[in-house]
Amino acid sequence: xxxxxxxxxxxxxxxxxxxxxxxxxxxxxxxxxxxxxxxxxxxxxxxxxxxxxxxxxxxxxxxxxxxxxxxxxxxxxxxxxxxxxxxxxxxxxxxxxxxxxxxxxxxxxxxxxxxxxxxxxxxxxxxxxxxxxxxxxxxxxxxxxxxxxxxxxxxxxxxxxxxxxxxxxxxxxxxxxxxxxxxxxxxxxxxxxxxxxxxxxxxxxxxxxxxxxxxxxxxxxxxxxxxxxxxxxxxxxxxxxxxxxxxxxxxxxxxxxxxxxxxxxxxxxxxxxxxxxxxxxxxxxxxxxxxxxxxxxxxxxxxxxxxxxxxxxxxxxxxxxxxxxxxxxxxxxxxxxxxxxxxxx
Length: 345
Ligand code: ATP
Ligand code: MG
Prior knowledge:
Layout: E1 3-10, H1 14-32, E2 36-40, H2 45-51, H3 57-65, E3 68-73, H4 77-80, H5 86-96, E4 101-107, E5 127-133, E6 143-144, E7 151-152, H6 158-173, E8 178-183, H7 189-202, E9 209-214, H8 215-224, E10 231-234, H9 236-249, E11 257-261, E12 267-271, H10 288-300, H11 305-320, H12 334-343
Parallel strand pairs: 1-2, 1-3, 3-12, 5-10, 8-9, 8-10
Antiparallel strand pairs: 4-5, 4-11, 6-7, 11-12
Residues 13, 17, 75, 244, 253-254, 273-276, 278-279, 285-286, 289, 325, 327 line the site of adenosine-5'-triphosphate.
């Protein structure tokens, strides 16, 4: 059966960075000798404009049937005040595809150090993985909107914590054997449940060193000593915040990829950055986060490990040769950076 890849360009810089990933996929598939069928569907603000729905029925059907979904970004000022928002499409997609595990590596790519001037906030040797719970917590709790008062609720069940913790423990086992579970157990009931479930599971992983850290302390530590971390396990909201922070420590938000996985083989792969309306349409966006997300799709959902490694190596080489977009202090356009990576595949 043909591998089916669904591209959802979305909004802002989304179409620009998705174009870059498609160029890389076209070349790498030829080199590695595999074929695929690509589809493009409306999603996010663009889909509100065309279908009145950020996650139209036909997009939903295509995503459910796909081996991998590669997403650009959604959102922007145009839809921010509306009654239907692009981000609702994103939450609905994660929920319907059951992608409860969001993996966000923050690793200084070999080659990035060579870029000059090296920004001081980049930390040499930073190599961590954030495992963020993606379908529970505050993002999916009951809500009441109001102009005088509003309510968001946070809920987690033992099962939800267990399945994400298992992914984090397994990931730590395959890396440096260190797991930091991040919560706010001194204040939140959900965090105290989280902590006790993770502690219960630790007995299955005697080879993994587990510690717990409050999210405020973790935020500080991520800046002051990011190399202390190996795998960070955390809930939905804390993971959203900490992974943006970690991406800056590892170079730039434009470089960071993510994979959202469920119990099946498929997944959603997207850069961690948003639609970047401030630079959209200018050909300036860094395509690397999306290109590395494609590499994660090839590895996790498409059984093409060699192609994934080929892409990661080409990105490192391009950076080492001085290629980079403006966010890295360089001057390549999105297309030039993409071409530099394609040449090195
Ligand atoms: P979201 O809520 O969707 O996560 P956000 O509010 O976190 O979005 P982003 O869209 O990620 O915001 O943008 C944050 C900053 O990072 C902006 O200044 C943007 O220009 C910059 N940025 C985001 N993506 C890229 C990229 N691919 N290349 C260069 N700069 C980027
Ligand atoms: Mg963000």
